[in-house]
Amino acid sequence: MKKVVISLGGSIIVPDNVDYHYLKKFKKLIKKFSKKNKVVIICGGGKTARQYIDSLKHIENDIRLLSIVGIAATKLNAKLVSGVFDIKHDIPESLQEVKKLLKIHNLVICGALGNQANMTSDGNAAEVAELIKADYFVNLTNVDGLYTSDPKIHKDAKFIPSISFEDFIEKVDKIKYKAGQHFVLDQVAAKIISKNKVKTYIINKDLKNLKNVFNNKKFIGTTIS
What we know:
225 residues, alpha/beta, Carbamate kinase, seven-stranded mixed β-sheet, 9 helices, 9 strands
């Protein structure tokens, strides 16, 4: 039995409107995999969080308040995804609640956990991976993986199929943290997975890719190890 943590990007859950077609297919794959494995899914806030945060900045620029709004968006998305999976138990609010529920259930879904400085849902996902000693951590996002620069802005950006923990941290540390930030993994997550040597995959939302990761087959994405 494997223990796997998945960070499900908010931009995948709600790109513009709720992508229930995708979520139904995602449910089918995860349900099958979690019959024999332990899975924790942490939902991001995505576009919803960024819209609320950007709007609030016109009125109030208190970092703590902006973070609280972003956290609320992740929990809203977690409620939505839990509904898709027809999960009846409460959504955990802390790392210990995740650990407790995982002893009872093979699948646990949540949003951000607590209110920590400079933390995103990716950071929480890395914390969970550390706590349960996950076999690997999967970051599902809206890009193919890690690039030398933002491929949406820089046409000459090169894809990075694999990178060491140390080199990844060096790359991430060059980015200044902000509430609702949009990057493949945040600074805290990078440090956690590196310290604990948690093998990490950054892949796009293509479920064939995710299935290949589950089955240890070739996939398109970035491996951090």
